[in-house]
């Protein structure tokens, strides 16, 4: 018997939101890759006319976002632990690629404001560090800590997609110049990251007790 939507709880709501962001991520990265390889984008005074090498950024981001849902589903992790580890390594490599190219990208683009440079530089440095903490925890067989760090990686990776989803709300404040566009664009970047971090930290705290209880079983499965 299907549970009523009202009783499915926060897990259902978060899963639906992540699924929507993943779908958006596939569309955004495919569209950006097509644009880079087919003459660029002249909209917004060429602010998003990326260089050819930016295809590496968007393709690696596409790989990451395609793998992400499978890594987050507990049943898949339990049923296919080897596939989970292999997919995790591929996603980690893709994550390093898109974070480093994302770090370099705004500095190679014309007329990028300080706010966007600061955001992209910060995330380009922080994201690999979060990823490294998750990998180190997995190698120590501390799977509860691995899960926490990888959830934070997810929050950071989905930040730009959350921004794409809510930016129209910011744009409703009217855009009458490129200065105004960048002001709203940068504000929505930080706001989106804050939303994701708050949701993930809330979820980590909410599930901390179950993580602690499940840790012996997880360690036994990892060792087998």
**Rg over CA atoms:** 19 Å
User: How many β-strand stretches?
Assistant: 0
Helix and strand pattern: HHHHHHHHHH
Q: Which term fits the overall shape?
A: globular
- The low-confidence parts are 1-6, 218-224
How far apart lie the N and C ends?
Answer: 36 Å
Helix content: over 70%
What structural class results from the helix and strand content? mainly alpha
Mean pLDDT: 87
Q: Number of helix segments?
A: 10
Total domain modules: 1
Quick recap of the structure?
The protein is mainly alpha-helical and 224 residues long. Helices cover 81% and strands 0% of the residues.
Protein described:
- The protein has 224 residues and is mainly alpha-helical.
- It is built from 10 helices and no strands.
- The radius of gyration is 19 Å and the shape is globular.
Write the layout of secondary structure elements.
Layout: H1 9-37, H2 43-46, H3 54-72, H4 74-79, H5 81-104, H6 114-139, H7 143-157, H8 159-171, H9 178-206, H10 208-223
Helix pairs in contact: 1-3, 1-8, 3-5, 5-6, 6-7, 7-9, 8-9
Name the descriptors.
mainly alpha, 10 helices, disordered C terminus
């Amino acid at each position: 018997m299907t549970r009523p939507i009202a009783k499915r709880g926060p897990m259902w709501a978060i899963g639906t939101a992540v699924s929507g962001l993943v779908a958006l991520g596939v569309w955004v990265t495919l569209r950006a890759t097509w644009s880079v390889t087919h003459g660029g984008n002249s909209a917004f005074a060429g602010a998003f006319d990326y260089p050819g090498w930016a295809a590496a950024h968007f393709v690696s981001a596409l790989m990451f976002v395609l793998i992400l849902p499978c890594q987050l589903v507990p049943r898949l992790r339990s049923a296919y632990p080897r596939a989970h580890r292999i997919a995790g390594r591929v996603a980690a490599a893709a994550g390093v690629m898109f974070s480093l190219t994302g770090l370099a990208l705004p500095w190679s683009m014309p007329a990028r404001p300080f706010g966007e440079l600061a955001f992209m530089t910060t995330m380009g440095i922080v994201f690999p560090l979060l990823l490294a903490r998750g990998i180190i925890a997995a190698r120590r067989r501390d799977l509860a800590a691995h899960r926490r760090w990888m959830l934070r990686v997810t929050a950071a990776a989905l930040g730009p997609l959350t921004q794409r989803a809510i930016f129209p709300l910011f744009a409703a404040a009217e855009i009458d110049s490129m200065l105004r566009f960048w002001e709203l664009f940068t504000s929505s970047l930080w706001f989106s990251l804050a939303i994701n971090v708050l949701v993930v930290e809330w979820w980590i705290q909410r599930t901390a007790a179950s993580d602690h209880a499940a840790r012996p079983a997880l360690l036994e499965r990892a060792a087998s």
